[in-house]
Specification:
By secondary structure, the protein is of the alpha/beta class. The protein is built from 15 helices and 18 strands.
Length: 422
């Protein structure tokens, strides 16, 4: 059995930027969406309110330190920050850059390139492009992007697998010259003294271009959608899950935005899913695909009413108790897998407007974080017992007590080293 680790996706849109001021109004952050959400039916849990009304600002160091301390003390091994790069133009990078610049914010990190075009989809105007993602074949731009990323990849806090820094890509099939781009970055990284880069393809649905998997080191199952869109899922489905529609995902962003607009005009109603059915399918997802590790995903809830109003997609039956149960099922299952198939990527640390967050809120407090902490502690304790059955049979101490009893035999590494993937 291997050590199960949990990482959380980290969303950086809770601070002001000039572009959002221009597009959505002065002072906009995602808290604006969260605050104005309205329930769609009796007992619908909206709006979501952070514990103590803590509508924080991610451009403040105090916020970042608080988040890191909360995550570390509840057993998380690191954050994966969303990274927004548009041909040299960056958005929402302030919190991530602040973490990089401040070594005292000592918590492992990785980046996930959210390589999508932005539109006004939230208010139904999918055809109005805010900033376009073009993915031009331009070695000078690739090098410029590499120079930025290398600062994170070479940092001692970088999450690594096989000693290589982890880098995820949200929409691999959007990149026409994907193989050439990844090879270019690998070569530059090796030239700079790294053993390479561990590239991970984020999977939300069946890959429109499955041949691209060969260019990655692993896959990350983006929950709940990887399970929801899998061909074998038999739970309640929405229109977008129909198999005959899946080839449309190969279309350029502009066409997909138009199709979503027409769909929202024709069917302007919410889509409901069953939490139990989805999780039951999720825990059975394979941890290998096309010969590559397929790292499992987990989710707390999903309810994007704050962004889409009556067009929301949401789950029924979510609660901290059910999350604890299913997260435990997943963790116990993957504990028997080799690394990195035993690394769970949780969606998310703070996706408040999509209703999936580990951070404490007014209704449930710290319940979801405590569930993660307790499950990981239970699974690790079970792993220790199975790894050293003689010690347990004769009643010798385990865990911290065993460390004191045996001295260096159970020596613990520095927290930074412990959190890095080897």
């Amino acid at each position: 059995m291997t050590d199960v680790r949990a990482y959380a996706l980290y969303f950086p849109q809770f601070h002001r930027i000039a572009e959002n001021d221009a597009w959505w109004g002065e002072g906009f952050t995602d808290w604006v969406n969260v605050r104005r959400a309205q329930p769609l039916f009796p007992a619908h849990y909206q709006p979501r309110v952070p514990l103590g009304g803590r509508y924080y600002d991610q451009s403040e160091r105090e916020t970042l330190a608080w988040q890191i301390d909360l995550a570390r003390t509840h057993g998380l091994s690191g954050f994966c920050h969303y990274h927004y790069w548009f041909e040299g133009k960056q958005l929402l990078n302030t919190p991530t850059d602040m973490v990089l610049a401040d070594r005292s914010l000592d918590f492992p990190f990785a980046l996930a390139w959210a390589n999508e075009t932005w539109s006004r989809r939230w208010d139904g105007q999918n055809h109005l492009i805010l900033i376009e993602q073009t993915h031009r074949r331009d070695h000078a731009m690739w090098l410029r992007h590499f120079e930025y990323l290398f600062r994170f990849w070479s940092d001692p806090r970088a999450i690594t697998i096989d000693r290589r820094p982890v880098f995820m890509i949200y929409r691999p099939h959007h990149i026409p010259d994907l193989a050439e781009l990844l090879d270019f970055w690998r070569e530059r990284a090796i030239e700079r003294g790294l053993p390479g880069v561990y590239f991970v393809a984020i999977k939300q649905y069946e890959f429109p271009r499955p041949e691209q998997i060969a260019h990655f080191d692993a896959i990350m199952q983006f929950a709940p959608f990887e399970a929801m869109f899998s061909p074998t899922y038999r739970g309640p489905k929405g229109l977008e899950q129909e198999r005959w529609l899946q080839p449309l995902r190969r279309l350029p962003d502009a066409w997909q935005h138009r199709l979503r607009r027409w769909k929202d005009q024709l069917w302007p109603t919410r889509t409901e899913y069953d939490y139990e059915s989805l999780w039951a399918h999720l825990v059975e997802r394979p941890t290998r695909e096309a010969g590559k590790p397929s790292m499992p995903g987990a989710f707390i809830d999903w309810d994007n009413t704050a962004r889409y109003g009556r067009r929301a997609r949401l789950f029924l039956g979510a609660s901290p108790e059910r999350f604890r149960h299913w997260f435990g099922e997943l963790a116990r299952r993957v504990a028997a897998k080799p690394a990195p198939e035993s690394y769970i990527w949780i969606n998310a640390w703070n996706e408040w407007s999509e209703g999936t967050y580990l951070e404490p809120d007014e209704r449930y407090g710290l319940a979801h974080l405590e569930a993660v902490r307790d499950v990981l502690a239970e699974v690790r304790s079970s792993t220790e017992r199975k790894a050293d059955p003689v010690q347990h049979e004769v009643g010798l101490p385990v865990g911290k007590d065993a460390e004191r009893h045996h001295g260096s035999r159970h020596h613990q590494s520095h927290p930074r080293q412990e959190a890095r993937l080897r």
